[in-house]
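Researcher: Let's try something more involved. This one mixes different molecule types, so please make sure each is placed in the same coordinate frame as the others.
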Amino acid sequence: MSTVSGTSILTGRQGLSGRLSDFFWRNPKILLLLMLTPPLLWLGVIYLGALFALLLQSFFSIDDFSGLINYEFTFATYKQLLIPSNFDIILRTVLMAVLVTLASAIIAFPIAYYAARYARGKWKVIFYLGVMLPLWSSYLVKIYAWKLILAKEGILTWFLAKLNLLWLLDAWLALPVVGGTSLSISYTGTFIVFIYVWMPFMILPIQASLERVQGNLIEASADLGGKPSQTFRYVLFPLALPGIIAGSIFTFSLTLGDYIIPQIIGSSRLFIGQAVYAQQGTAGNIPLAAAFSIVPIVIMGLYLWMAKRQGAFDAL
Amino acid sequence: MTAVLFQQVSRHFGAVRAVDSVDLAIAEGEFFAMLGPSGSGKTTCLRLMAGFEQPTGGHIEIFGETAEGVPPYRRNVNTVFQDYALFPHLSILENVAYGLMVKGVAKAERLKAAEEALAMVKLPGYGTRRPGQLSGGQRQRVALARALVNRPRVLLLDEPLGALDLKLREQMQEELKSLQKSLGITFVFVTHDQGEALSMADRIAVFSDGKIQQLGTPEDVYKRPKTRFVADFVGSSNVLPPDFVEGLGFGKHYASLRPEAIDLGDGPGRKQFSGRVTAASFLGAANRVTVEANGARVAAMLSASISVPAQGETITLSFLPQDLHMMDGTQ
Amino acid sequence: MRSDKNTSAPLGLKIAAGLGLAFLHLPILLIFLYAFTTEEKSYQFPPPGYTFKWFAAAWNRPDVWEAMGLSVRVASISTVVALVLGTLCAAAVSRTKFFGREAVSLLVILPIALPGIITGIALRSAFSFAEIPFSFWTIVLGHATFCVVVVYNNAVARFRRISGSLVEASADLGADSFQTFRYIILPNIGTALLAGGMLAFALSFDEVIVSTFTAGQQSTLPIWMLEELIRPRQRPVTNVVAMIVVLVTFLPILGAYYLTRDGDQVAGGGK
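Model: All components are placed in one shared frame. Result:
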């Protein structure tokens, strides 16, 4: 390696790939366009196109006599959302989503906090997989498991009977609204299953936001005389809030749009998802189904806008 | 022959003029340094030579061949990156052989060449390891071998010693220099460390604000800085304001004066001035004294055999007129 | 949150965290128990007896096999499509800055950010509008749409970790764009793509909401299960199928975790 020779510009690889590479190197925008075209065609044209078509249909109405769609621009379908029976569905769903979100945050917080602050090495992995496996395991199987648990002859009744606490279950079921003939056909059952299915989505963002908190902040608060409750209230909770909001985007949105859980475990009263399903299916009222499905989109849009202002997306 | 030629080369990023109308000619076999603070345009110049950036104006030639529009992979120019950029998924030997592999050199031949290159940088037998298993200094040698195995006509080094500790840095400086002399390859390296540039380079280009402030030998740049910036940035010269210089009987210009050219007291043929001591410290081999004289702050390296002057004391200092170097500009 | 290692958690926190994890796992364990019950007509607990016979019964059910086959085929094709689209998107977004970059990321996330029923009904009405009959491909179209994000998330995280100078170093050493892709980019993002692909497969294999809108009369395994949930006809077979589904979906999750464990996390928001 003692002589230096040759040309300064190499001929390099010839042929098609060499020339193509040169072409892309000189025209990076064409390469970018080529890379973006397939995903944009798929998502931007097919998916967004379908969404806009749906949006458009909500401005049509259905002819009450013929049952055919009247292709004239109208807000009549949206007005139908406001009639009491439909508006009740919306209120019921939003209330459920709020309650599920709050309960999920309460149950998720200790798990996330422990995993972020105390779990080390092997335990860190166990906690991580302990959250990931239920999160990713089959949605239907999870619902099915609760059908087994909540059934009258199932494990919960058996367990309470062993503890001589069946009277407690009966008292709860006797309550108005939340009660019913059995847990599996009550709002309580729906609520529990919603929490079970969506709660893992709350743990990971809270854990991520807590991971970023320096442990010595907790000690600093204690050092300054903060009682544990004060430390939680003034230090831990505000720092975890972006994570909680990020997690709530999932729990809230997923509860808002779900139609399978209340159908399998719940009373016969409808949620938004079920209403959409029923309107487009058996009722054949696509415009009303479309108008119903705009509701979660609008609610989530507002929610995301507020979450963004709170800086929740950094915790995703 | 000219290895790298820049004619009025500019690289603007929107309103930012990273490189602004630079003229440059690097000779074949030269060890050339581009020195400057961060954001001065030196690294962009290096990237223009490598082909990672394209000039927005001007003309670049490498060994007489036009370089603009030529992709980096078609240039017989190789780079040692600041962070070394070793491929983490390849072994050391595969890293070094990479350039030959993509050029289609047969396996046995390229592995042999890679082994030789590793031996040249004093890492024989390290081929089976992964980049993650090597120390910073060793990675730096691998990066060097990986570039040199391609026998480039120009080797570009981006802050090659920046990440190494002082001792390793001094050792590598010597090794790089002897390697360059034995291979005869043109080396162009970028640094913000003036000591490194002065000790290694045949010639230095001092960059500031996208322009070359001065281009010359280390001695030129150190002893005869052309501008205040160069005087400030290279070495520790005093920059004397025009009024002060005029007061000593010279023209009304900025001038530079190295602290070690100043002595205590007066002598024949010397120019003298007096000032009040504002700071003094004992450095072992010398005393460093700062005085305030006629509104200028002047630092002087005085012989350690004389005791350190007290703060507030007024002392007389002098220098030989040929050590005063006049610069451009009166402002 | 980094803290001194020798502090141990308060007892209350330990209990709350432990109960929370138990709440997440016990119902799934119950599925395993029920697969062996001798009871056919109800969900009686504790099971009156245990048997292996339902495994044989499930094995001999052509409708289960058919649904399983369809799900596997749909998930495979959707995964391939999602891999291509997700990688292209991730490469474009992380390698260059262009106008509308944010919009592209939003577009990729939208199909899972919006409730599945909206995606489902939108696609269904688009199919009926364009007079496209339901087929294997209408299911794939829906699945690939929401699987892209999983691949995208994993690929973007990995692209971020590849230092830009690696690509430059490769070009500097004489590799053209295709060689750089093959020898440098692909080996470095390979495991992330594999992990993303596994998660996409798991996601598609399990999906029911969008599928009910795009499948027509076809029955994927989740659709088969959904029908069993609404109108239980063969509880023991359903129990066995549920257990197998749990086991089948655990494998890709563990695999994806193993592939991405050092550094980026498996994108949990991908479902």
